TrEMBL record:
This is Uncharacterized protein. It comes from Glycine max (Soybean). Residues 99-124 are annotated as: Disordered. Residues 101-124 have a biased composition (Acidic residues). The lineage of its organism: Eukaryota, Viridiplantae, Streptophyta, Embryophyta, Tracheophyta.
Length: 124
């Protein structure tokens, strides 16, 4: 009888040890999307189109320190509830200014080919 009692005792002890603790309320999961998607986030300030254009212009002038500022503005606009589709025309304008003409592309390609040829001559 002692063996049976010990066996049952250890069985119940294991079961109790691994069972989750009972809670009064169901666990609550938190999500960043708990608010309505149409409502802008109250803590994030929306960046205007003009402000974003100003930051991008600063980046295009060659100021490498403007890169974090541009990314911050884009993120703030997204967090403020402005859909990314609203910025498509703005992005087309930004990217359109950065495209190379055919002459510049040919010059760039020939420059890289010259570098590659020089590397091959050194390696042989």
């Amino acid at each position: 009888m002692n063996a049976n009692l010990l066996r049952n005792l250890s069985f119940h002890a294991r079961r109790l040890r691994f069972s989750p603790t009972p809670t009064v309320t169901a666990p609550t999961c938190f999500s960043s999307r708990s608010h309505a998607p149409d409502k802008p986030h109250s803590l994030v300030e929306d960046i205007s189109d003009e402000e974003l254009k100003r930051r991008v212009a600063k980046l295009q002038e060659g100021d490498a320190e403007a890169i974090p500022s541009v990314f911050e503005a884009i993120l703030q606009r997204y967090l403020a509830g402005k859909p990314i589709e609203a910025d498509q025309e703005l992005m087309r304008g930004i990217l359109g200014k950065w495209t190379l003409s055919e002459d510049e592309e040919d010059e760039s390609d020939s420059h890289w080919e010259e570098i590659d040829d020089t590397d091959n001559e050194d390696g042989v």
